[in-house]
């Protein structure tokens, strides 16, 4: 598929373009060394490409292997509501054809001074753009980049097209690295689950406790609109929130009756023990605040440091609600499990004192939506 001839652009010379291109490559290289989600990587890439090409509309559409459609994953210059609606199949519209043919494409213009070329029609569910660039890994198309302007579409030089295509190739490799890192993280997540289950297995009454707390916490995070990257951190923090119980003596941890004040004091050390186990410099240091502060109270009467309100990290406030709900909906040696309705009422009665009231409201919405899936026996 061939577009119109590529014409020179007066306001940008080749030397300046080359300088900006290598600056973009350097920034993208630094980004790949950080632990970023695909979402975060694409957002940064869109900003780099916008600056390099001096355009005000950029989008990245990726192929969804489940629906087999190209959907917009990152963008700049498009209304959010419209961007989320864009989707098309491979081969559909200009973007869909560029995706299949794996070559950059410049859209022709209605200018009688220019030779006119056969141009596939736009379809309603694709963004209007002047330049289309495929995202290719090896011989496989992964997505499509579109560049354009909100007002009149401007022309691109051959150097600009080549620079954008080269940056897209680098970006495609960065995406592949992110995908592989996510697979490695998935393996790590499996190990963390095994560790959490091993902790819970010390006591028959707390088997699967951490798994259920994690499920509730993630549901809350999703309903609060947290990013996928933060959801994954919350998942790990919830899984290991009780890791410090490894350091509590079994005769206290597994005691069937009421604990003495001295024994409670020992139990209350588990958040700090957990924080020390995870360490200040290890790969799991980012979840230390969740482990350390999940027993703080919204009114400041919790432990270990008596933090209050917004001083408690949001993820720790989420885990506090999920942890309490799981605990009172499971059987214990000294009492029977609460029903879901009674447990929900208990959580609500402690909103503003023990729990963040905003998070409690979100959790009540979760319960209304998923009550049938939240049975303690699961």
Secondary structure topology:
Blueprint (H helix, E strand, L loop, with lengths): L13 H20 L4 H16 L3 E8 L4 E8 L3 H6 L1 E3 L3 H9 L3 E2 L24 E7 L2 E9 L9 H43 L8 H15 L4 H12 L10 H4 L7 H7 L2 H9 L9 H6 L20 H15 L11 H10 L7 H14 L8
Provide an overview of this structure:
By secondary structure, the protein is α+β, with helices and mostly antiparallel strands. It has helices spanning about 15-35, 40-55, 80-85, 95-100, 160-200, 210-225, 230-240, 250-255, 260-265, 270-280, 290-295, 315-330, 340-350, 355-370, and strands at about 55-65, 70-75, 85-90, 105, 130-135, 140-150. A six-stranded antiparallel β-sheet has the order 3-2-1-6-5-4, with helices on both faces. A hairpin with a 4-residue loop joins β1 and β2. α2 packs antiparallel against α5 (about 160-200) and α6 (about 210-225) packs across α14 (about 355-370). It is elongated, with a radius of gyration of 27 Å. The model is unreliable at about 1-10 and about 110-120 (pLDDT under 50).
